[in-house]
Amino acid sequence: MRVVSNARGHYRFIEGIPAYSAGVVADAGHEVVHVTLHTGVPWRDGFDIAEAHMRAEGHQRHALCAIQLRCPEPYTFGGFDAFNAEYRGLLDAWGVCVDGRNPVARTNVAPVVNPPSVQCLYAFSYVRPAPGAASPTFVVAGSGEYDEATGIHREGETSAEAMRDKVPTSCASCPRGWRRWVWDGDS
């Protein structure tokens, strides 16, 4: 687990893959703010909304620390690669990456009920000053049941037994030491 400081964004992040970080924690004296849109909007339009909101609150693009996306159906690996290239291109154009590393945590969900017709931005998070914050605030990326060594655990299975079996795999994908890292600042 490699922790990287995003001084301009006022948070630290756990390095993930080029498409997203594993999670972020706000620096001392700052907090993570979560904004949920009333309805999902096409993801590029959503970034414009996020930027306008942050600017209205007095923050630059560097404060963006997480996004939540909704897609019409689960992506194939090739589909994810294509989307990730376009998405990462936008983050690079925004100048939010830190030494080539993506600090923004991301979650993709393909809802079974009322899925969107296109890839949508559903929510975003950013960091703002909070001098009196008593506890650290953080956000993690959704990792699902994918394991780089074995692939998708029980792929395509949605029975109650399969879902119970997927929980340990999903939880194991969370970086060890989150509690220590968030509350003690260890890396």
Describe the structure.
With 187 residues, this protein is α+β, with helices and mostly antiparallel strands. The chain folds into two domains: 3-142, 60s Ribosomal Protein L30, Chain: A, CATH 3.30.1330; 145-177, no CATH class. It is 28% helix and 29% strand. The chain is built from four helices and ten strands; from the N terminus they run E-E-E-E-H-E-H-E-E-E-E-E-H-H. It has helices at residues 43-56, 77-94, 160-172, 178-184, and strands at 3-6, 11-14, 23-26, 30-42, 64-70, 105-109, 120-129, 138-140, 146-147, 151-152. A four-stranded antiparallel β-sheet has the order 1-2-3-8, with no helix packed on it. A four-stranded mixed β-sheet has the order 4-7-5-6, covered by helices on one side. A two-stranded antiparallel ribbon has the order 9-10. Strand 5, helix 2 and strand 6 form a beta-alpha-beta unit. The longest helix is centred in the middle third of the chain and has 18 residues, at 77-94. It starts with a strand and ends with a helix. The model has no long low-confidence stretch (mean pLDDT 85).
Percent of residues in helices = 25-40%
Tally of DSSP helical segments: 4
**What is the level 1 CATH name of the largest domain?**
Alpha Beta
- What's the number of extended β-strand segments? 10
| Rg, alpha carbons | 17 Å
* Spatial strand arrangement across the major sheet: 1-2-3-8
**What value does the average pLDDT take?**
85
Q: Main beta sheet, described?
A: 4 strands, antiparallel
The coarse silhouette is globular
The CATH architecture of the largest domain can be named as: 2-Layer Sandwich
CATH topology-level name of the largest domain: 60s Ribosomal Protein L30, Chain: A
First-to-last CA distance: 8 Å
- Helix and strand composition category: alpha+beta
Q: Uncertain spans, ≥5 residues at pLDDT below 50?
A: none
